[in-house]
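Worked example 3 (structure in, sequence out).
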């Protein structure tokens, strides 16, 4: 059953990514045009600013899954009940803290952004902050129930709820936009959907998982251990928030809402790009925690690192090369005029994360063996460097400069230093890993040459040409990696489900 949940989780995750792609392609352009460049930039600015409150999670969700998986493997049900109760209390307290911090932010909106926002924009920003702060505050208690579902590996329910929420959102927002409502309506709809998600998570834990909560035995020694473990995940969260939101914050201070809108177009594509990479690695977190207590864990971790990394490399390379070749025209028809600079920002961002995202499973491994301290401290240090570099580059070169600052810090920390750490300290065989990745490269030559010829000599000036060339490029890519890149294990991941599907169809006939 667990295997089915795992496979279904991956399939539904890709389904979710597909729906996100459809929304990104069709809903987002309408939203941008209906809101207008300035209001869209304002919405993006407030969203990225309030998102900093999410770091209050301080890694407790990851810590919960880690300890829950261990207690379940050892059959300690009483410990699980204590854990459930303790984490629910913690997340409720965090929700209250988020509400207080958000209220302080609301009181200081004018002093932070008064130089580059108009009076009308400042007034609307304050309303958006209030709603978004409430939104984040109610999600904290829900995180406890979401973590229980993850720890039990019930991916089908989890992904279905996520799919429904994602699909419903544009159907509720679009009519309001056409009626003349703007960003405030958009945020209110998101809040209503989040309330629905919270209710569904609580219902599932209570009715289906029969989760029990014990509140009278708060284990302070365990809390101390979890606090130490979570603190360094907290630093990771701070790092992520800084790296992906500080640019918009700085642009809000020095350049204004229109520049933020240009940057956010690239940022959205980059976020989509990163989400693709987490589809597979996310469902392996409980498995990584189980491997951590087994014999020959390092060898098993290396094998898993290679298997997941190779699959992610195929997917990431397809999207990276595709964005570089076709991205300029895509942004033109997707976002409209005035966003040409977004193409260059997009390329800077996605190229800088291309290597880190194929190694996402490494983060789960570090947390499972409680070796995330170095990465957390490194990430925090690099985020400080990012802020310093980005302030200078943002003032001088605008949105492109801010993106370059982020890229430099990521390449230094996540690519060079972390790969050395994985090899030297975690004892993962990174030479073997990169050897496997290098063996994939010959399968990329044909699609790269074809794509290079399109980029250099062919002018894409109609949607029909764009769609045709994207399809042709994808087919050439697939044929090339099937014959020259995929190993037997990777081919079987595709062949076996297809054979089962065909067999089921024949039996039904």
């Amino acid at each position: 059953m667990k295997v089915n949940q795992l496979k279904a989780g991956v399939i539904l995750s890709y389904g979710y990514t597909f729906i996100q792609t459809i929304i990104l392609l069709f809903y987002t352009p309408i939203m941008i045009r209906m809101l207008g460049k300035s209001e869209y930039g304002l919405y993006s600015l407030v969203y990225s600013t309030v998102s900093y409150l999410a770091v209050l999670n301080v890694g407790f969700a990851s810590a919960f899954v880690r300890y829950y998986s261990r207690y379940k493997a050892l059959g300690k049900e009483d410990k699980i009940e204590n854990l459930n109760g303790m984490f629910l209390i913690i997340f409720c307290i965090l929700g209250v803290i988020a509400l207080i911090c958000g209220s302080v932010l609301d009181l200081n909106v004018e002093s932070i952004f008064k130089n580059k926002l108009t009076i009308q924009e400042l007034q609307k920003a304050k309303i958006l902050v209030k709603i978004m702060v409430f939104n984040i505050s109610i999600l904290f208690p829900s995180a406890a129930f979401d973590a229980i579902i993850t720890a039990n590996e019930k991916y089908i329910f989890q992904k279905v709820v996520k799919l429904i929420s994602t699909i419903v959102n544009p159907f509720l927002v679009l009519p309001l936009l056409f009626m003349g409502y703007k960003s405030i309506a958009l945020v209110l709809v998101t809040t209503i959907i989040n309330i629905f998600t919270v209710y569904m998570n609580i219902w599932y834990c209570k009715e289906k998982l029969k989760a029990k909560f014990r509140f009278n035995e708060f284990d302070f020694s365990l809390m101390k251990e979890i606090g130490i473990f979570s603190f360094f995940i907290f630093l990771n969260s701070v790092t992520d928030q800084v790296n992906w939101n500080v640019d918009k914050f700085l642009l809000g201070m020095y350049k204004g809402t229109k520049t933020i809108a240009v940057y956010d177009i690239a940022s959205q594509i980059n976020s989509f790009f990163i989400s693709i990479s987490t589809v597979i690695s996310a469902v392996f977190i409980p498995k990584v925690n189980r491997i951590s207590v087994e014999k020959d864990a390092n060898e098993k971790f290396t094998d898993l690192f290679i298997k997941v990394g190779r699959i992610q490399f195929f997917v990431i390379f397809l999207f990276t090369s595709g964005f570089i070749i076709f991205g300029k025209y895509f942004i033109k028809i997707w976002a409209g005029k005035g966003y040409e600079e977004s193409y260059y920002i997009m390329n800077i961002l996605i190229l800088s994360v291309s290597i880190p995202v194929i190694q996402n499973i490494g983060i789960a491994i570090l947390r499972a063996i409680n070796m995330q301290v170095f990465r957390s401290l490194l990430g925090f240090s690099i985020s400080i460097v990012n802020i310093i570099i980005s302030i200078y580059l943002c003032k001088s070169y605008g949105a492109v400069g801010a993106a370059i600052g982020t890229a430099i810090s990521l390449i230094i920390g996540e690519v060079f230093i972390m790969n050395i750490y994985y090899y030297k300290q975690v004892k993962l065989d990174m030479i073997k890993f990169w050897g496997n990745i290098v063996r994939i490269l010959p399968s990329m030559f044909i699609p790269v040459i074809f794509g290079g010829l399109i980029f250099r000599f062919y002018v894409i000036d109609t949607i029909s040409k764009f769609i045709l060339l994207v399809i042709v490029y994808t087919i050439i890519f697939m044929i090339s990696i099937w014959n020259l890149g995929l190993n037997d294990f990777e081919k079987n991941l595709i062949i076996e489900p297809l054979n089962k599907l065909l067999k089921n169809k024949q039996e039904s006939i």
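Notes: The radius of gyration is 23 Å. Residues 31-218 form one domain.
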